[in-house]
Automatic annotation (TrEMBL):
Name of the protein in its database record: NAD-dependent epimerase/dehydratase domain-containing protein
Entry-linked PANTHER family: NAD-DEPENDENT EPIMERASE_DEHYDRATASE DOMAIN-CONTAINING PROTEIN, PROTEIN YEEZ
GO CC, any one term: cytoplasm
Organism of derivation: Saitozyma podzolica
Top-rank taxon: Eukaryota
Recorded GO MF terms: aldehyde dehydrogenase (NAD+) activity
């Protein structure tokens, strides 16, 4: 297949691009940075240096999209639906003139915060086929984008909702927990962590997530209209993770404070999820140890990325 990955140098997208390239596909990836373009090229990913969300950038990757089989939108977005919808409509216009059976498969990367329903009990449980809960205000706009993608007749529209990523450089854990723990360990102190006492984590390793994208992308025409949650099977308490971080970091302990803004509230929104469609329809099974179980490995990787 010919694959175009928008935002290919990002924490989510780069492993996805690598997975498709290793599987033998021709992969193009957009990035804003000439330096990141070199990193893509080293992994046999053909770089397109542009802002993929503006008219000039769309014109650049759009030339390749005219003969593409698959487009993956993995551009991080906190600015609302407009950029994602404009990108989708541009790709749809390219695909719309193709005959049935030759439509572009379009995978939109959403997020699992949209499915948060609370920390425990059957009322909090969710899965791939559950609709948005509306609980996390920061991400309510995503539902409008998902509906456009899933209902489109111009493309084979698919949505993947990753949960929190862990491993490698650390993702959001390198923002909220790991740096504070490292600094506290160096000073022999405790660190402060944002969390709710009953906050439960749903996580996915980037390599496992990339495998889901690969399996779904290769089956795109068969999976039109489906939504997949990218998560492992573990449901971990934030306090269990913080205890594990104390052990591997050498910090003296931690104190918990409540979220103080919308982004922190979203981070602390519990997701109790058991994804099933990825396995049932593609055979996908995450292989990496969970965040708490593999914390020694993931902490060492985080430290290596700080050098």
């Amino acid at each position: 297949m010919k694959v175009i990955i928008l935002g290919a140098s990002g924490f989510v997208a780069f492993p996805i691009a690598q997975a498709f390239a290793r599987a033998g596909h021709i992969v193009y990836g957009t990035t804003r940075s000439a330096e990141n373009a070199k990193a893509l090229a080293r992994d046999e990913i053909l770089p397109i240096v542009c802002d993929a969300t503006n008219d000039e950038g769309r014109a650049l990757w759009g030339k390749e999209a005219e003969t593409a089989d698959l487009i993956i939108d993995a551009i991080p977005s906190t600015t609302g639906a407009a950029p994602a919808l404009a990108t989708f409509k541009y790709a749809s216009a390219i695909s719309d003139g193709r005959p049935v059976g030759a439509k572009i498969t379009y995978i939109y990367t959403a997020g699992a915060w949209t499915q948060s329903r609370g920390p425990a009990g059957l009322a909090a449980w969710t899965s791939d086929t559950q609709p948005h809960s509306g609980r996390v205000g920061l991400t309510t706009w995503r539902w409008g984008v998902e509906k456009e993608v899933l209902s489109s007749n111009a493309v084979n529209g698919i949505v993947i909702r990753p949960t929190l990523l862990y491993g490698k450089a650390g993702s959001l854990y390198s923002l909220f927990y790991f740096p504070a723990a490292l600094a506290a360990a160096q000073k022999g102190e405790t660190f402060e962590a944002v969390a709710h006492p009953d906050f439960r984590l749903a996580n996915i390793h980037p390599d496992d997530l990339a495998d889901l994208y690969l399996r779904v992308g290769e089956r795109g025409p068969l999976l039109k209209g489906q939504t997949f949650v990218g998560s492992n099977q573990a449901s971990e308490r934030a306090t269990d993770l913080l205890d594990a971080i104390v052990r591997v970091s050498g910090a003296k302990g931690y104190t918990i404070r409540p979220p103080s803004n919308a982004f922190e509230e979203a981070f602390c929104s519990s997701i109790v999820v058991k994804p099933s469609l990825g396995n049932a329809l593609t055979g996908w099974t995450p292989k990496k140890p969970s965040l708490v179980d593999g914390i020694d490995v993931y902490w060492a990787s985080y430290l290596a990325h700080q050098e």
